[in-house]
Amino acid sequence: MMKPYDEAVVIPTIVMGTGGLTLAGGANAQLEKGDANHNDGVQVGFDAGSPTYTLNVFNTTDHSERLRIIHSADGSGGDPALTTHTWINVTTGHTRADLSKLAGTVVLNYDIRGAADLMSSTAISTYVTDGGDKAGTSCGNCTQDANGLITVNTSGNVKAGSYDLSDTSGGSLPNSDVSDTQTWTGTGKAGTSNVSVAFKVTHAAGSDLASTADYAISADFCNFDQNNGSLTHNCIYRLEAVETGDNTGIFEGTVEYLNLNNSTANGTISGEHDGGDQEVEGLLGYIQG
Description:
Elements: E1 13-16, E2 42-45, E3 54-59, E4 67-73, E5 85-95, H1 96-100, E6 105-111, H2 113-118, E7 123-129, E8 149-153, E9 160-164, E10 169-170, E11 194-202, E12 214-227, E13 230-238, E14 242-243, E15 251-252
Antiparallel strand pairs: 1-13, 2-5, 3-4, 4-12, 5-11, 6-9, 6-12, 7-8, 7-11, 8-10, 12-13, 14-15
């Protein structure tokens, strides 16, 4: 089976509209091929001030716009085997202003199964911030500016998920058809600051990432807007396909489509899905494969 978290395989990919804002797009000079672990790029490690892994980042060699992370050494000054959680922080090439001007509902689709499985994760917390603790590897300093931090999900062990950026604690980026008020406004951070995604992966002591770990992750900001003036669908979908037999080289899979009808309220009116584009994240379960 082709798995979207397998860094070594080519993944069939469907791009709708612009494809959304992915880790392969935007403008961040620290996410270019071969870049090392940089404060404004990718940081993988433990809490702020603790050692981080030495690593380099690459795009996968297909069109799936995943980010490949290859470790080369543990950080100095600590013992990774004693830790019970690991942060994966990525500063994207997209700004808060980029996300704020997206029409309709903005949804974060992410898949960190490759890294989470290597650590046998037991819990995962997911955050989006417009300027968190880039100097370290935790999102600890984000809480000093609550409105700059969107707490996406802190429940369960969700390795791949789809969540909108409203109805969260801290900052919120709601659908403008529901509310014109955005509370995602980090103090002292301009809208031109690049947005970061941060994953806190909880695991047993000794189940940390290896010094030579190699894995791919994805984190996409998609948007959906169905109203009288717009039919917007910007997202990227990576397919899990199954080979028809041993060494046939032919992979098959299915794609399911859902029709999002225009809705004027957060509820079902005449048979359409609940809220149309306003609740679309609940319909994207198949983003996980």
